Amino acid sequence: MLQGLNHLTLAVSDITASLNFYQGLLGMEVQACWESGAYLSCGPLWLCLSVDAARCPAAPENSDYTHYAFTIAQQDFTPFTERLRLAGVAIWKENRSEGDSFYFLDPDGHKLEIHVGSLAQRLAACRQSPYAGMVFKEA
């Protein structure tokens, strides 16, 4: 039986640029690094950065909606997003859902999000204004 998300592995083109971004800008903790990769932690999440010569970043408008969202506390949201804006990160979407969210790209064009809120909060908002055809699990 599955118990949860174990880790994410992101293909990157430049390990130094990616470490500067994920450790230096986002504040993730490096657990180990080597010539072509690194393991970082973000709360209970384990993130692997792995250099891959086949990594070809796509412009946000030429890629799908797949993205990785990280939890952030409400009181940290504004200062964190200001730090990202000052660093010049590319923004790929404006928030239109419940809870504060900020959508941005990493150096390789991976779509990322920081989000204030939980699944329970999202479902409560959806019960008020459901998506087309939305069905909820019975309590």
TrEMBL record:
Q: Where is the VOC domain?
A: 4-117
Task: Respond yes or no to whether keyword Glycoprotein is given for this record.
Answer: no
Instruction: Please name the Gene3D superfamilies in this protein's record.
Output: 2,3-Dihydroxybiphenyl 1,2-Dioxygenase, domain 1
Q: Tell me the Pfam families matching this sequence.
A: Glyoxalase
Q: Which species is this UniProt entry from? A: Chimaeribacter californicus
Which NCBIfam families does this UniProt record tie to the protein? Fos_GSH
Q: Keyword set for this entry? A: Transferase
Key word Plastid present: no
Q: What is this protein called?
A: Fosfomycin resistance glutathione transferase
Looking at the UniProt entry, the stretches that span the membrane are none
Top-level division of the source organism's lineage: Bacteria
GO molecular function list: transferase activity
